[in-house]
Amino acid sequence: MTEMKTMLKQLARDTMFDISDDEMPALIEEYNMFMNHVQFLESIDTQDVEPLAFPYEVETTFLREDEVSHIISREDALKNAKSIQDYQIKVPKVVK
Question: What does the alpha-carbon distance between residue 52 and residue 54 come to, in Å, rounded to a whole number?
Answer without folding.
Answer: 5
